[in-house]
Amino acid sequence: MPAAPRDGTGAAAAGPGTAAPPILSVVIPVRNEAPNIAPLVAEIEAALGALPHEIVYVDDGSSDGTADALRAARAAGAPVRVLRHASSCGQSAAIVTGVKAARGRWIATLDGDGQNDPADIPRLFARAEAEAAAGRRTLVAGHRVSRKDSGVKRVTSRIANAVRAWALRDATPDTGCGLKVFPRDLFLDFPHFDHMHRYLPALTLRAGGHVVSEPVNHRPRVRGASNYGTLDRLLVGIFDLVGVAWLQRRGRRPAVEEDAGP
């Protein structure tokens, strides 16, 4: 069997469904999510239809059958590209890897556990394009109005969002939602650090961009197991919050003009 073609990043090139250059790159970080790959890819394809797109999976050191499931999705003709971390580096590192490798001008991020609904992507993308037409670089964040998580997770997230909103003024009711759409070049302006994916709205504001939220569907996890616990996220989040608040206060955005005179 011939080897899959490679692109400049060393990742597998997009499948036959992306003859046109992608406009939108769907970046999905995953670790040990083998049973969720095929259903999620099918939903993304149904949602995006004829829009030129690619699906960039970043396998963050999975130890189950995730790699095989991704190969199967690509072999079936979906426009899937696969990048792999040799060992787990975390969700933020996986998103950075995916966005850097993406070929679309626009990025949609999506959790790989099936709880985000790909059917919401076109609406968030349309809002992002409208913002761009108005001259704004905007991150469109999903807002899980009716969450399908455990009671403990809902309560802790509500508290975390309230504290974060107070400390960072990030104008976002649900920063933890994995479904977001934004210009690729906006993300590349951000400082990259562990757990940064939880602070994309604050980093957008720091970079001079805008943030808007859109209500999105949220579904219970029906396959696989979560990679996160409640206590570990809480402890790490305290230190992250202090660090991002420091970044906000230390950031400077110079107004640049080119001197065209003699």
From TrEMBL:
Domain Glycosyltransferase 2-like intervals: 25-150
Query: Which CDD domains does this entry report, sorted A to Z?
Result: DPM_DPG-synthase_like
Q: Which Pfam families match?
A: Glycos_transf_2
* Statement: the UniProt record of this protein carries the keyword Transmembrane helix: yes
Instruction: List UniProt keywords, sorted A-Z.
Output: Cell membrane, Glycosyltransferase, Lipopolysaccharide biosynthesis, Membrane, Transferase, Transmembrane, Transmembrane helix
Query: EC number(s) for this protein?
Result: 2.4.1.83
Record's GO cellular component, any one?
plasma membrane
Q: Which GO terms describe its molecular function?
A: dolichyl-phosphate beta-D-mannosyltransferase activity; undecaprenyl-phosphate 4-deoxy-4-formamido-L-arabinose transferase activity
Name of protein: Dolichol-phosphate mannosyltransferase
Give the species: Neoroseomonas alkaliterrae
